[in-house]
Amino acid sequence: MSEFTYTVTGMTCSHCADSVTKEIGTLSGVENVDVDVDSGRVTVCSAEPLNTDDIRAAVTEAGYELIAS
User: Fold this and answer.
1) Which domains does the chain have, with CATH numbers?
2) Helix-helix angle 52-62:14-25, to 10 degrees
3) Which tens digit of pLDDT belongs to each residue from 37-65?
């Protein structure tokens, strides 16, 4: 299992966290998504390495911005 941490801006509440979790969770191989709204930190556990562009697209689809990985 691999673990990756990203920084996402624009999240302010649990609904934001749910939206990001849902979108990233649809990506192939993702097993767990943990979102800390206060810090903007998103930790993703996956069975295989993830493409940052795919994570960025999922975060954008949820309405937020990936600023660092």
Assistant:
1) 2-68 (3.30.70.100)
2) 140
3) 999 999 999 998 899 999 999 999 999 99
